[in-house]
Amino acid sequence: GGIKLLRVASLLQHSRVEIVQLSSPRRVISNKGTGFNGKIQNAIWAWVFFMTFFLAIAVLLLGFALSGLPFEDGVVLTIAALANTGPLVEVAARDIDILSLSTLAKAILIVAMALGRLETIALIAIFNPDIWRK
Predict the structure, then answer these.
(1) pTM (2 decimals)?
(2) How many CA atoms lie within 13 A of 17 on its CB side?
(3) What is the pLDDT of residue 2?
(4) Half-sphere exposure of 62 toward its Cβ, with a 13 Å CA cutoff?
(5) How many C-beta atoms lie closer than 10 Å to residue 7's C-beta?
(6) Which of 51, 50, 68, 48 is nearest to 108 (CA)?
(7) 8 A C-beta contact, residue 75 and residue 83
């Protein structure tokens, strides 16, 4: 669960190429020495996933805050649910009792676990009308 290392590596390789291009814009850069195979679309999709992951964290934290949960507990529950790491709750915050959470907090936790289990890229593809037209 969470952000896959392959996506982070793709973003890092793409950012290296972009920084070199920004530092000397007239320079012709070959992709052979950079290790980046030139698939800009892969880097774009990795960035889209990265941003939707952090947007989901922000929305879920807001939901937990509205349910009356303390911020630290909300952060732990959000990361544990989105990254599918349930034991994180026991390790990071030992005083969270999931059974005593409000109904709204439990519903938000269920949605967070479902979002963490599904790929957000797949969800974007499902709601993208261009995919359905092809």
Answers:
(1) 0.68
(2) 19
(3) 60
(4) 6
(5) 20
(6) 68
(7) no
**Tokens read off for 16:** 């290296």
Q: What pLDDT sits at residue 87?
A: 80
Own/partner pairs for 27-36, CB < 8 Å, 24+ apart? none
Q: Long-range contacts made by residues 64-72, C-beta under 8 angstroms, separation at least 24?
A: 64/105, 64/108, 66/104, 67/101, 67/102, 67/104, 67/105, 67/108, 68/102, 68/105, 69/101, 69/102, 69/105
Answer whether 10's CB lies under 8 Å from 44's CB: no
Q: What are phi and psi of 4, to 5 degrees?
A: -70, 145
pLDDT per residue as tens digits for the range 112-125? 988 888 766 666 67
